[in-house]
Amino acid sequence: MSVNPISSGLVIPCRGARLSSTLVRLKARVIGKTRTKANMGVDRMQWGAEPWQFADLHMPDDPSPFQNAAGVPCVMLIHGGFWKSAWTSELMRPIGDDLAEAGIAAWNIEFKGWSDGDEGVWMDTLSDVLRAWGQLALLPGIDITRSMIMGHSAGGHLALMLASKAERRPWLTIAQAPITDLIAADHANLSDEGDAVRRWIGAGPTEMPEVWRQLNPVDHPADVSILLVHGERDEDVPKEQSETYARVMKAKGVEVQKLWLPGDHYSVIDVASDDWLVQLNAIIDWL
């Protein structure tokens, strides 16, 4: 495994030294590009009976520079929004477009979220995410051995949980501004109202301690490659959440990669930002 120095000054392991003409061309396409969205290949697939059980498949143009006999690599995208149904997969659509333009497929999923009067839906949420991950393996043209997960905020929490629980483990898990410690997040009153975690679970940590532990990423080491991404100026989910996860995992003998960026909670998913470009480069290097 080679090591690639990136602009943040940190190092990320990569599968091969591909920082070459391919990456230079892709950088030129990402920075200051104009693109026709109508030309993007996006197919919405309803994989379940419920209206939210769907995903958008963003496929790159053929041939992709990363295509092999098995197909193209794919990143499953999990949006954030503190597990609320008010926030949807549209948050990650621009990332799906950018990945496809770079030659990488994206599987942008939706899942059951909580709302006023419909709380405690955590089992449905996890079931949807796991089932969407399983559906990805059935898609033609996807190299499932190079399938990855990228989740933002609460989606980062779900990505880390999937990495530790799924029977088929992801090749790489990227957690952007993730909520890694639910109890600490609850104590810090994260989210607009400060009670998103307990409303998603349906009870507080003292009422259902075992459920909180089962849903807490810091309590579940994942035997897969993990990249934590966090903005230094993140006020919605403080960087301490990622730092805590990295520290706890190290104590458990699990090494994770850290990518601290200068931006905030939303710059890490803003395809017009340098924070996103660094992540795109890291994904390409991994291939």
Q: What attributes does this structure have?
A:
287 residues, alpha/beta, Rossmann fold, eight-stranded mixed β-sheet, two-stranded antiparallel sheet, 9 helices, disordered N terminus
Q: Which CATH class is shown?
A: Alpha Beta
Question: How are the strands of the largest sheet arranged?
Answer: 3-4-6-5-7-8-9-10
The count of DSSP E runs of length 2 or more, i.e. the number of strands, is: 10
The CATH architecture would be 3-Layer(aba) Sandwich
- Into which percentage range does the β-strand content fall? 15-25%
Distance between the termini: 11 Å
Low-pLDDT stretches are: 1-39
Question: H/E order of the elements?
Answer: EEHEEEHEHEHEHHHEHEH
CATH topology name: Rossmann fold
Q: Main beta sheet: strand number and arrangement? A: 8 strands, mixed
- Structurally, the number of domains stands at 1
Amount of helix: 25-40%
What does the average pLDDT come to?
A: 89
Number of helical regions: 9
CATH superfamily: Alpha/Beta hydrolase fold, catalytic domain
What is the radius of gyration computed over CA atoms, rounded to a whole number of angstroms? 18 Å
Structural class designation:
alpha/beta
- C-alpha geometry: globular
